[in-house]
Design brief:
Helices cover about 0% and strands about 50% of the residues. By secondary structure, it is mainly beta.
């Protein structure tokens, strides 16, 4: 069948003489989601170091776009003198993560974070031990679509630290509870975070006063719960490029907790490049903007993150671009052609398939794009799903012709040679069609000040309002029009003009103030 699918003195202290507590790139929180480019569907974001959709630290809700995903990262962090000495602190970090899609709305991920901390310029009283440690994290994420462009969900993340590396202390298990939400706009992915961390990681330290100040600085564990917040933006200047900016703030809570200004506050800038639909390469630079909490003996354990850090990451997805949603349209079955072998017995030709994604010129997915597929098995037609994906099964091997079309876009034709049993991936961009005609311009006073004005196009009766810069534009069919420009306190202006086929007519109106 041919069909479409929209596609120190304690155990912990002693461990720190040879290994330092791993800090966290926490499996963060929450989300306010994806903004898409010209289409009114969610623009897909890449995966974070948790192998789940996200910006840098900010998680992003929405359909899971791959059956399985993998991520690896490596980074460096620097911390300035914070121990009243000529000290400096250096951190090498890395992570490995894997995720699986249970259904489109639910995914599981496992991430392992590791780091090595090195301290320089310390006197003997602060301790000079360097070391490394690793932390596992289990993440469960779910989301659902509430309305066009708006998606909400939740995430549960378990951090499982131990007293010695490697080890696991059940009493120290730390839980992040997160809410997720998303919305979309042209070429932009916007994300916001809100959540709570029930932090028990400090339980791994039986005698915290036995730790050196250097160990306290590098611990990464906390005696305080935290309110998790953040906001991030991703912009797609090109279909396979995403630029990222975000801020996250883990506000520590409790009577003994450091102040909000001493809680981890970070600003991130990064970029992500996708050479194929399955591979991503990203880089992120991060500034720690918070004040430093006290790390002396008797002070509560608090996370102290690098002042500056950077990382590079590599991601890989299996089944990328496929959303296992119900098909928008299923074509009528077409029988698979059979070939005859010499003894006269019929043998079924091994079918092949075609899958991919239809996007706009800016990389935004186009929902409801129409496909017309012609192969030796016959003709079939269908539409893409909400994320622009499609899948055609049971094609006959040989030449396949696919015509792509979508409202407001030009058509595209692809001719492919498909071998027996082969699956070909096609990512097809469509260019936006030019309007039949357009009137655009700027309304201002005689002194050049931009004006808010109402522009009416007759005889069509079209009415638009100029923006704060006085600019306006309106799409019209070719023809002759009378344009009326009206602004409070100014004389009404009436102009006649003609719009040519696929042409733009510019109308700049300078209005005269009314006499009082």
């Amino acid at each position: 069948m041919l069909g479409f699918l929209a596609a120190g003195g304690s155990d912990r202290g002693e461990a720190f003489s040879g290994s330092v507590r791993a800090g966290s790139l926490p499996a963060l929180c929450l989300f306010l989601g994806s903004f898409s480019a010209f289409a009114q569907t969610t623009d897909p974001v890449g995966d974070s170091t948790s192998a789940l959709p996200g910006l840098a630290r900010v998680a992003v809700a929405g359909p899971i776009r791959s059956d399985a995903a993998f991520a690896a990262s490596a980074g460096y962090g620097f911390t300035e003198a914070v121990l009243d000495e000529s000290d400096s602190h250096h951190r090498a970090s890395g992570s490995l993560a894997a995720s699986v899609r249970v259904v489109d709305a639910l995914a599981l991920a496992l991430r392992f974070d590791g780091r090595y901390d090195s301290h320089a310029g310390l006197d003997g009283g602060s301790g000079t031990d360097d070391g490394w440690v690793g932390d596992p994290r289990l993440i469960v994420r779910g989301s659902t679509t509430r309305s066009r462009g708006l998606q909400v969900g939740g995430q549960l993340a378990l951090w499982m630290p131990g007293a010695d590396a490697p080890s696991f202390d059940a009493g120290a298990t730390t839980v992040d509870f997160l809410l997720l939400g998303s919305y979309s706009a042209p070429r932009v992915v916007v994300a916001a975070n809100a959540g709570f961390r029930l932090d028990r990681s400090g339980a791994t330290i039986e005698e915290p006063d036995s730790l050196s100040r250097a160990d306290r600085l590098a611990l990464g564990v906390s005696d305080s719960n935290a309110l998790l917040t953040g906001v991030g933006v991703g912009w797609h200047p090109a279909p396979n490029v995403e630029l990222i900016a975000e801020a996250t703030w883990d506000v520590l809570l409790g009577n003994a907790a450091p102040s909000a200004l001493e809680s981890p506050l970070r600003f991130d800038l990064g970029a992500r490049w996708s050479p194929t639909t399955s591979v991503e390469v990203s880089g992120v630079a991060e500034i720690g903007a918070s004040r430093r909490p006290a790390v002396a003996e008797g002070d509560p354990l608090s996370p102290v993150e690098p002042r500056f850090s950077m990382l590079v990451a590599l991601g890989f997805r299996l089944g990328a671009g496929e959303a296992r949603t119900a098909p928008r349209h299923v074509a009528a079955p077409v029988p698979t052609r059979r070939s005859v072998v010499p003894d006269g017995a019929a043998a079924i030709v091994e079918p092949c398939s075609l899958r991919g994604r239809v996007t706009g010129a800016g990389g935004e997915p186009i929902a409801g794009a129409h496909l017309r597929v012609v192969s030796a098995a016959g003709l079939s037609e269908g539409t893409t799903g909400a994320d622009g994906t499609f899948e055609v099964r049971d094609l006959q091997a040989g030449q396949v012709t696919v015509t792509f079309s979508a409202e407001g876009h030009g058509d595209a034709l692809r001719t492919l040679d498909v071998g027996p049993g082969q699956t070909i991936v096609v990512d097809q961009p469509l260019q936006r069609s030019l309007p039949e005609g357009q009137i655009r311009g700027v309304v201002s006073s005689l002194r050049g000040a931009p004006l808010r004005a109402t522009i009416t196009v007759q005889p069509l009766g079209l009415e638009v309002t100029s923006d704060r810069e006085g600019a306006f534009q309106v799409d019209v069919p070719p023809g002759a029009y009378t344009v009326v420009v009206l602004a409070p306190g100014y004389r009404t202006q009436q102009r006649r003009l003609r719009v040519e086929d696929n042409g733009v007519t510019v109308l700049n109106a300078d209005l005269v103030e009314e006499r009082r």
